[in-house]
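Notebook, bench 3.
Goal today: get a predicted structure for 2OG-Fe(II) oxygenase from Sphingomonas kyungheensis so we can plan the truncation constructs. The sequence was checked against the plasmid map this morning, with no discrepancies at the termini. Length recorded as 218 residues. Pasting the sequence as submitted so the record is complete.
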Amino acid sequence: MTTLPSLGNGLAAEPIVARLLAQPGLQKVPSPKLDLFIARDFIGALLCEALIERIDAVRRPSTIADANGDATFRTSETGDLSATDPVVQAVEARLAAFTGLDPAYGEPLQGQRYAVGQEFKGHTDYFDPQGADFAQYCSVAGNRTWTVMVYLNQPEAGGATRFKAVDKIIQPETGKLVAWNNRRPDGSLNPATLHQGMKVRTGVKYVITKWYREREWA
Ligand SMILES: O=C(O)CCC(=O)C(=O)O
Ligand SMILES: [Fe+2]
């Protein structure tokens, strides 16, 4: 088996985009405004189930940076997944091979759970350099570069991810990956990555998220 090389932190987006485009079944959302990719069946249902179990074991109320006075802005639950767990390691290896993004720059894999009525309102995944919490979140590893997210199940209704600036609504499906560059090709932060996790209407929604940084995650 050949091992694909790591392609860095994603700030140089071109090699990451090329690696993604080489993956069978990958869809690029056609827009000049941002690099946004979708791949169905990125991981299988059994691995998704195992990850859901792990999330349920560690979940706690989600938080946001730069409190905005809206207590209902992000109402989901979040949990950090253990890097020593073989199930987590399997996903990490698959993510690294698929995207080329170097795991050394990645935050710990996180899980999110949304019950009926829960959501994450419109936001960007990068931290606002003018925001009150910027130093706290970014002084060590720098700001975020890429986001990679995988839906672990399919709620009966609701729970889509909406990218307003490009008028794209992505429906959750078990094992489906969504990846985007939080920057423009020149490396500047891209406000067109604004997105929201829409309210779950029926059922429950689970995702995993992996965020990459400018500098290594210690
Ligand atoms: O749950 C979703 O669809 C989006 C989640 C998200 O945007 C985030 O966790 O940053
Ligand atoms: Fe997000």
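The mean pLDDT is 96. The domain at 13-213 is CATH 2.60.120.620 (Jelly Rolls).
Flagging this for group meeting.
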